[in-house]
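Exercise 7.
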Amino acid sequence: MKFSIIATSDIHGHTERFSQLAQMIAKRRPALLIDNGDFLQGSHLSYYYDNIVHKQHPQIELANMLGYDVAIFGNHEFNYPPEKIQAMRKACKFPWIAANIPDFAQGYFIKEICGLRVAVVGVVTHFTKIWDEGNTTKQLQFEQAFECAKNTVKYVREAEKAQLVILSYHGGFERDLHTGHQVDVEQGENEGYRMLTEIEGIDIFITGHQHLEIAAKVNGVSVVQPGANAHCFAQIDVVIEHGVLSHEPSLVFIDSTIKTMEFQEFDAWKNEVIGIADDDFTYGDFFAPRIKTTAYTQLLHNMQLHFSGAQISVAELPYHAQGGLPGVITRGQVLHNMPRPNRLLVVELTGAEIRRAIEQSAAVFAYNQELEIDFSMSVLYPEPQPYIYDLWGGIDYEIDLLKPVGQRVTKLLYEGCAVEDEASFEVAVNSYRATGAHQFPMFKKQAIRETKKFMPELMMEYIEQNSPLSIKLKNTFQMK
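Solution. The predicted structure, written as tokens, is:
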């Protein structure tokens, strides 16, 4: 007797590619179809449906047609306000589960397949509450993911008499699956390795959040993590022979020749030209805009200071190798550079707090063996991730990577004068950074003011108001 289980994760609203995966999945007719969270939020298409036309996301209808059995809440589901989460749940013809959010979601899902009682236990990283930008989770209790997973797996084994137990965890791994070597700071965001090695009774382990592509057998457990943005899905083939249960995991990658769904109104909106620039403000590698001031980063600071009225600007770049804006600018290009619907906040920081924040950003870099600037995570684990990095405007500063972490800021000036530790400044920062996550507690303060509009909309408005754009560098930043 044979059947297959298919799992997706971290699709992030990339419905065009998901429509290709959906056709592949439909042909395989899985006995159990699971989504592991971060289903909608994160794409240009999602931004359009959420903020421009305010309609139900078409990916929900596609998922209903495909016949998902169950979905697990991911952290990005909680980027939406409570009423939008409830509308999503109502629109989906399948349940959303999370055992560690009691009184909000069911903890597990049971389905009988080929006479076998199969349980899916769902948990989400409890760091979700830390990243909450809009108080969506204020009334919710997020229990510690590991303990909740352990208790719920035991319960479905004993009380529900489950014969096959799937733990679906919207979280990733803090250690290498095969060597046990630490690959992430063990603070609780990712607890997959601990779950895998310490929880008894798991047959299949579905993970996500880290956007890795994993299909492996570890101590008899099938372990998968099906990447991100609908580039692949995980398939676990289950065989029951002579009363013996076995299973094998694999990843199935997208067939790009399959026709995608079309969204003509969205495409027209996204490709609309909203402004021009007197130069090309693009970049072609990760490091170029991160190691010195560029015209594009100056544009970011100009926009943030204009709409916030702050003295100093903190700008975050997405983890893209290519970015910035060309001479002819469309809405889609803005969304590529500003993919998250954050708001702009103003908080008060002291000079000492500004220095600590820049030092935290500087820690993501190191020199590699070729004496080239590299991300420190590529040189020595565990180290801060590349996305834990900000660029500052309104000040002149310098970072020296030859100095120890925590002592790398060698110049810090505001209007030509040294920034004193006790001095206070109004600083513009995005609402995600203002949660204080990723060792930036200095930003977690009561906002002096904030914008009602999201930052991508502010940037589009700024470009339209100031086109043709001409950028002059106002402050200096250098990394050496």
